[in-house]
Amino acid sequence: MKVNTKPYGLIDVDERQHxxxxxxxxxxxxxxxxxxxxxLQQPFYWLQSMDIHEIAFVLIEPKIFRPDYQxxxxxxxxxxxxxxxxxxxxxxxxxxxxxxxxxxxMTANLQGPIILNRKLHMARQCISENDNxxxxxxIMEELSNIRNSVC
Amino acid sequence: xxxxxxxxxxxxxxxxxIEISVVDIKGDQVKIGIKAPRDIKVYRQEVFTAIQRENLAxxxxxxxxxxxxxxxxxxxxx
Lengths: 151, 78
Fold this sequence. Notes:
The complex is a heterodimer. Chain A is mainly beta. Helix content of chain A is about 10%, strand content about 35%.
């Protein structure tokens, strides 16, 4: 199918990349259908609205810079996308990235993770009840913390 | 806004199936218990607003993304 995307214009997208958000994303509740694309720049993804081409979010897998990341999401939130807490095989976790002009300052939202049921292609923005996770984790700083702890 | 006074262990019923009770009061902090059907989402307001605001900021991200070289991070930090 053809999808008009913010980063790449009109492109061909496989049906399997369609992700349905039954409740939308907070602040964007009316937009329920997105496609998940690999960004040209690793390790990012684009979550592109199918309805409004200007609306697209950059996603990252938080484990890349926070290997200890474990959002504390109530099971009733997972039920909405037909997941159970122990179904790790079908669960994918992403964070929304905010990139300001100074890209070194980019942050990831670990408090409101995007949790995806990869079998059913359904997703939801959940709210983590764990106070360790905030809306603005500096990705480059977290990465250098990992580096320093490894070296 | 409707304003009601409640003491510890007293509660309020909203609709037919939501009950909000004052569990404890200590200084300026109030512990609130909420009994509601599972499909009613309950969030702390400041968390909800923070995520909403961050989503709005994130949606304004431009299309030029940085590339993170996960293996060669050291080179980047001059």
